[in-house]
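Slide 14.
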Amino acid sequence: LRDRNSSFRPMAGGSSGSRKRLAECTSMLLEHFSVPGDCATLFLSKVLGYCVMLGGIAFKVPQILKIHRNKSAGGVSISQFALEMCVSAITLSFNYHIAAPFSTYGESFFILLQNIVLVFQIRHYQQIPFSSFGAAFAVWIGFLAFLYSNQARDMKIPVPMCDVSAQGVSNCAVSTLPLQHCLQAINTFIMIVSRLPQIFQNFRTKNVENLSIITWGLNLAGSVIRVFTTMRELADQLILLASFVISAVLCFIVVLQIMLYGKKKVSKGTKQS
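Slide 15: predicted structure.
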């Protein structure tokens, strides 16, 4: 954390330690052709991280093409993608302010662009009034601009902090934390809220016609990989780790729904024919 007079910067620990170790491992590989065990897992983590970033370039293209091909957005929840846009905005601004390497969060940028395309598709095919949609999109643009501003970078908010002594006495006080850190912490909650409408809608309608198992399968794989890379490179970032674990669980549920309800639909169609 920073003091009152300092500018926003990342917390010391996992990130800087990982970069230093990566430089040492690269030097040992080039000069001595030696790769210790921890270096091997670090290199693997980096390769997987780049794979996730590259996968993000076409992550939701199958979903976009499926809606375009069907000329329908039935069974697709616009609130899910709108909330994912907020999650991506917070992630991108946080990493921008701490000057993180683009390879560590680049997929969020590409996923954001694709989510924007998806919400416009859903608005068109579900015939959502443009006045209400345009107003909501304008609010999101303003939110994005604020996140990238110096005010958002330097702002602190009061947060209650409590601890319990060995005698069982609770001591509480109000502390301050950078807004960017707090927003990153609540990203987990927003991510959960963005997934639940789609999951509940699938349970209610049993309609997964416009959900791409490729998209959700890639989402699941990406979340599992990020669990590994976070544990390897950012072991002290428990909030990020929890976010990826929960994301993997929710994606797994949707994949199961697509497999289950899609199979039932195929079986029903076969019996009717």
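Speaker note: The CA atoms of residues 81 and 115 lie 6 Å apart.
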